[in-house]
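$ ./design --mode recover --in tokens.txt
reading tokens...
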């Protein structure tokens, strides 16, 4: 009887050790998965930042490439999108769609255009003032 109780005690201890080991392994893999997901998000954020930072440069390249062609807005946009999509790692191409890149390029273009309009207005006002001074 004592041997049976001892065998049962050993069996219960072994099962407890196995259960604790399984909990540890499951916890480890959950933590590892969460870390990988966090790194993937960070990487997507880094790629997004790189695309947003490169958009004005791509707009300038497209403007230079189509400088002699009138009404080439759609072609310039597609050129920018294609060049910016080259910055996206293959595993992230589903996240960075052409529509998303198009909206980034459009925002960058709008910001550049607004700045250019302000600069032109300032330059025009300064030039008009100089002309007026010379005419007097």
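writing sequence...
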């Amino acid at each position: 009887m004592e041997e049976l109780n001892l065998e049962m005690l050993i069996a219960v201890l072994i099962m407890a050790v196995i259960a604790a080991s399984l909990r540890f392994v499951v916890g480890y893999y959950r933590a590892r998965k969460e870390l990988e997901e966090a790194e993937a998000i960070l990487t997507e954020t880094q790629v997004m930042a790189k695309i947003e930072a490169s958009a004005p440069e791509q707009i300038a390249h497209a403007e230079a490439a189509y400088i002699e062609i009138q009404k080439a807005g759609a072609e310039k946009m597609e050129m920018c999108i294609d060049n910016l999509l080259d910055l996206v790692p293959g595993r992230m191409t589903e996240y960075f769609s052409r529509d998303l890149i198009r909206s980034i390029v459009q925002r960058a273009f709008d910001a550049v255009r607004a700045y250019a309009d302000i600069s032109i207005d300032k330059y025009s006002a300064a030039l008009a003032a100089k002309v007026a001074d010379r005419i007097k």
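exit 0
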